[in-house]
Every structure is written in C-alpha cells, then in structure tokens.
Design brief:
Layout lengths: L2 H4 L5 H30 L4 H45 L9 H11 L4 E8 L2 H8 L1 H18 L5 E6 L2 E7 L3 H18 L2 E2 L2 E2 L4 E8 L5 H16 L6 E5 L8 E5 L3
Parallel strand pairs: 6-7
Antiparallel strand pairs: 1-3, 1-6, 2-3, 4-5, 7-8
Helix pairs in contact: 2-3, 5-6, 6-7
C-alpha cells in the first residue's frame, strides 16, 4: 500500500480499524521499553518493572483512542471533501458526462493515437425550454447524455461543452468510424428523443465531425468540427457533416451525410 493511500480514509470502519492499530502501537512501545531491560537484567528489577508497566500501558490506552479518532476522522472528512471537489471538476453535475475542461484535457492525452472529434448540438432546444420549461429541458439534456453513452464505445470520451452542446472524442477512430458513430447517434437520438419526461418532444441532434491530424492542434480540429456542425444545423438539422482539411485544400471541405 502506498503511503499516500493510507490517509485516503472514506468510511468510519477505516477510522476505527486504524484507531485500533495506532492504539496497539502506542501501548506496545512504552511496554516494550520497560520489558526489554527487565528481560536483560533479570528478576532483581521485578519490583520496578511491576510499578512502571501498568502506567506505561494504561496512559497511552486512555489517551490514544480519542486523539486518534479525532485525527483520523479529520482525514476522512478531508478525503471525502477532495472526492467531491474532484468529482465536480471532472463530471457535469446535470448529465454526468465529463466537464468541458476535463474532456479537453483527456482528449489532449489521447491525441497521439489520432482519432475524431464530434460536436453534438440539440436541435430547437430553445423552443423546448420556452414551451415546456427548463425542467423538461434538463431532462432532454440528460437523455442526450444517455444516448451518447449508449451509442458510443466504452473508450469514447464524452463531455458537455456548455448549454445544449456536447463533445465526443473517439480515440484512434478513422473517418469511416466517425461517420458510422455520428449516423448511429442521430438514429438513436431520433428514436429515444420522441418522448421525454412524458412530453412528445421529437428531440433530434445535429453533429459536426472532424478527423484529427498530426499537423493540427486540438483547437483546429475542434474548430473544424464546429464548422461542420454549423453546416449541419443550417442544412436542415437532424444530420451530420464530416469536415476534412488537406494540405492542398486548407479550406474546409464538407461531406454532406444526411442522417436517416
């Protein structure tokens, strides 16, 4: 067990277990301090040994448990607080997918193997909020997150970029695999978004896809995906576009991939 892991205390059971261990050591140290000389010098010090051994054992037995409990419980509270902060930093509180910052950080770590970035935006989301209220809008966002988790592979990095916009990085994916993922997402969202929280919403998504290339930065790849998303939104929604940037054609090339 690594040293730093010892102080990652999350349960009262761990507190009591470590408190018992600390108490045993606290009692053993003074007891052994008196016992070893007695064993060496023999019976002539038996009287001194008998007088000293009881307070040597009793004092730490009385003092150590409450002090150890207080200190270890503080470690427990600290660990739980760090866990909550860490969870808040990593995961979006509404949808449970990664936060924007954590998604981009994890994506940077995975760029060496290449892959594809997808930007997903809910169609006519403002109308849902205006017509049915923000509570239904929140349920719609949760449904999109559920569809993303259901439709994509386990190694996909899924995050919420803000509002009704989500981002996905598919490590090592080719353009064909990115297109297949986008098509699957559109189809599943069309099916799963018909009725949400008892309301017939007919929720769909538009998707912009961009394959990451070694010569590009992550920001450029995301910009390409965002441009593709823009074209998907303005070409009728409920569809996806694949953006490609080449050395001979630095401007955006769009392949229209209408869903359905």
């Amino acid at each position: 067990m690594r040293i730093e892991k010892i102080f990652e205390i999350r349960t009262m059971r761990q507190v009591y277990k470590l408190m018992a261990i600390v108490t045993v050591f606290a009692v053993l140290i003074p007891v052994l301090t008196f016992t070893l000389p007695f064993l060496h010098y023999g019976q002539r010090y038996l009287g001194i040994f008998m007088i000293a051994i009881f307070p040597a054992a009793l004092i730490p037995l009385l003092i150590t448990p409450p002090i150890a409990f207080i200190v270890l419980n503080l470690f427990r509270i600290q660990t739980l607080t760090i866990d909550k902060v860490d969870h808040y930093v990593r995961f979006d509180t509404l949808t449970g997918v990664l936060t924007r910052a954590y998604l981009l950080g994890k994506t940077r770590d995975a760029l060496s193997d290449g892959g594809a970035f997808l930007m997903i935006d809910a169609d006519h989301f403002k109308a849902i909020n205006d017509t049915h209220g923000h509570d239904i809008g929140d349920e719609a966002l949760k449904r999109i997150a559920e569809v993303l988790r259901k439709a994509l592979t386990t190694d996909a990095l899924i995050g919420r970029l803000g509002g009704e916009e989500f981002g996905v990085f598919l490590p090592g994916a080719s353009d064909t695999e990115a297109v297949a993922a986008a098509e699957n997402l559109c189809a599943l969202m069309r099916q799963e978004g018909r009725v949400i929280a008892g309301k017939e919403l007919g929720l769909t998504v538009s998707i912009g896809c961009a394959l990451h290339r070694d010569e590009n930065t992550l920001e450029k790849t995301i910009k390409l995906a965002d441009s593709a998303l823009y074209h998907a939104k303005h070409s009728g929604r409920d569809r996806y576009f694949l953006a490609e940037a080449t050395d001979t054609m630095p401007a955006l090339i769009l392949k229209d991939r209408m869903a359905g």
